[in-house]
Design the sequence.
DNA sequence: GCCGTTTTCGGCCCGACTGTTTTCAGTCG
């Protein structure tokens, strides 16, 4: 059993206990579920090595939970969980994924209307049967319908991070088949879109039958949707559809171009070809009946008078014109990051210690990191107040003294309150090497108010970086309504950096916002938002991809710089901010006023 | 149910919002 499956059982138990009104236990199960999910190695391996005693080394797992884990790992079942499920056989995770629905709502919906699934809920809401339930009303019903619409609009799509592994594994499997000359991943996966609907693989092979067989009979395949010599299609157990195309070597480049897309990019390229009295399709670039390119992508671009365009840019957002002018950006490369500036530890809601994070970051090749635990406004994480930060400063100094080869900076992820004030006093902020500021509450303010609140926080002279600027969670929560042009303008004016939070379900900023920011000359930082040692690679793995989609170069990113140059940039920003006029007091903002600010 | 540099028993999870209510329950971060 994988960690994610074990965690899921514990999450269910937390929800069932919550329904019973049991105190404290739900939180305990929730915490343990999180620890299991984040645990570096499979908990199953831990058990194999050290038995039930070893299970108790997972934080939040004591005797009772270790026994349940042991039962799950040895029998694949948990009697308590099954008993709950027998009494209330509902899709807990699915229903609770809808915004505004928690354990108690699930219970009411089940007991009053027999709702078991998201589909049941949709039917009941559309029939107007929700509004008459106790503690529900017309507005709750509307909210559920809205939540359902959001879930269905995103369903069928997958996070890039969940797709890369299985797709690469399948590509590797095909590459090992005799007679296969080339394998490539195409489609939106190659363009590194943050979410993908399906994946495309391209193969050049002398023996299409053998490749097709290896593809359709791969271990993860749940269903074969189509099976032919040039095109096959399967669905994995995760629901992801993967298409395979077998193409001749002479057409490989043209096919790769065609199947990488985007559609808009392809249309623009074909129009360009027509202007030159050429024809571009998935088999090649043709003048009359004669192919003048097709074997390689670069050859196709060249014959169209273009430099080769990196896949991340192929969205028809000006990349073709830039390629014509020879003005494509020198995109940031993997391996460019020297620092990671958003890291949570076990001082708040992270899983690992400062020292463990420092050692892991050093091993990953970082030269510096900033510890940025939450502040007191985020009470649920045990957020730091001024005194706790003073103690942490001493702990960080101790780590700097013992761990050589990496510099650990004192920072914080400081909460922005409703008025745009920060929840630490100025003296404490001034002592920090790096002040990240972030919104964690009041997501549903009107656009003008939300924007004004964040802009006001950005004007604080001690603030260095705006963390996860839009607050979105991919496939789960929309970004809050904020005027990004106003945020970019404020960053430009204050010299503040905007973060690309590379946690794979955030990727916040998104591509277009990154592009606007760098066009305005706003510095970017790319962070992992690590809550555990295993997360430290996120910046490198997902952040760089996303940054490339945003036309970002290494020079735009502060944490590509060596530590001294990085710190110098922060100092320049702070001295600049210190002489700028006092921030206006918080006051109700009219829509027009916010627009002028932009 | 877990945990321990005040504790092996007694704390943990708190504040704000929303929608449903006329004083509160549920959800969220």
Sequence:
């Amino acid at each position: 059993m994988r960690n994610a499956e074990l965690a899921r059982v514990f999450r269910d138990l937390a929800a069932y206990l919550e329904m019973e009104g049991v105190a404290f236990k739900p939180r305990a199960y929730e915490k343990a579920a999180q620890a299991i999910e984040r645990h570096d190695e499979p908990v199953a391996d831990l058990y194999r090595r050290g038995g039930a005693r070893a299970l108790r080394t997972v934080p939040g797992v004591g005797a009772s939970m270790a026994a349940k884990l042991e039962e799950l790992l040895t029998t694949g079942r948990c009697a308590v969980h099954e008993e709950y499920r027998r009494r209330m056989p509902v899709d807990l995770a699915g229903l609770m994924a809808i915004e505004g629905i928690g354990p108690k709502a699930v219970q009411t919906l089940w007991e009053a209307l027999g709702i078991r699934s998201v589909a049941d809920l949709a039917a009941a809401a559309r029939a107007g049967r929700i509004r008459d339930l106790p503690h529900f009303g017309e507005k709750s019903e509307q909210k559920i319908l809205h939540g359902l619409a959001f879930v269905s609009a995103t369903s069928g799509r997958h996070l890039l991070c969940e797709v890369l592994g299985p797709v690469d594994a399948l590509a590797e499997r095909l590459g090992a088949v005799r007679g296969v000359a080339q394998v490539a991943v195409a489609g939106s996966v190659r363009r590194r879109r943050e979410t993908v609907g399906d994946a495309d693989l391209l193969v050049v092979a002398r023996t299409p039958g053998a490749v097709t067989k290896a593809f359709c009979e791969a271990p993860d395949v749940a269903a074969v949707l189509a099976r032919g010599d040039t095109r096959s299609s399967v669905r994995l157990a995760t629901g992801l559809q993967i298409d395979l195309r077998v193409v001749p070597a002479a057409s490989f480049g043209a096919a790769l171009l065609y199947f990488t897309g985007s559609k808009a990019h392809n249309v623009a390229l074909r129009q360009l070809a027509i202007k030159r009295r050429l024809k571009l399709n998935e088999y090649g670039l043709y003048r009359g009946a004669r192919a003048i390119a097709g074997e390689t992508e670069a050859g196709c671009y060249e014959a169209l008078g273009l430099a080769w365009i990196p896949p991340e840019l192929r969205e028809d957002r000006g990349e073709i014109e830039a390629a014509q002018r020879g003005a494509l950006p020198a995109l940031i490369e993997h391996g460019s990051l020297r620092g990671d500036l958003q890291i949570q530890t076990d001082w708040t809601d992270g899983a690992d210690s400062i020292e463990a994070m420092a050692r892991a970051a050093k091993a990953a090749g970082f030269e510096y990191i900033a510890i940025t635990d939450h502040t007191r406004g985020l009470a649920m994480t045990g957020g730091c107040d001024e005194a706790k930060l003073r103690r942490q400063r001493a702990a960080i100094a101790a780590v700097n003294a013992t761990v050589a080869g990496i510099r650990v900076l004192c920072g914080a992820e400081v909460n922005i309150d409703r008025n745009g004030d920060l929840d630490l006093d100025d003296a404490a902020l001034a002592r920090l090497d790096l002040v990240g500021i972030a919104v964690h509450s009041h997501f549903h303010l009107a656009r003008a108010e939300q924007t004004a609140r964040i802009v006001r926080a950005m004007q604080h002279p001690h603030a260095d970086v705006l963390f996860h600027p839009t607050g979105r969670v991919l496939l789960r929560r929309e970004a809050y309504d904020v005027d990004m042009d106003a945020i970019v303008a404020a960053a430009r004016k204050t010299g503040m950096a905007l973060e690309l939070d590379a946690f794979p379900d955030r990727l916040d900023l998104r591509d277009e916002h990154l592009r606007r920011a760098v066009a305005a000359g706003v510095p970017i930082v790319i962070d992992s938002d690590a809550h555990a040692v295993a997360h430290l690679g996120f910046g490198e793995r997902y952040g760089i991809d996303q940054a490339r989609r945003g036309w970002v170069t290494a020079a735009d990113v502060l944490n590509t710089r060596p530590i001294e140059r990085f710190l110098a940039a922060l100092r320049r920003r702070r001295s600049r901010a210190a002489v700028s006029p006092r921030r206006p007091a918080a006051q109700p903002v009219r829509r027009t006023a916010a627009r002028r600010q932009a």
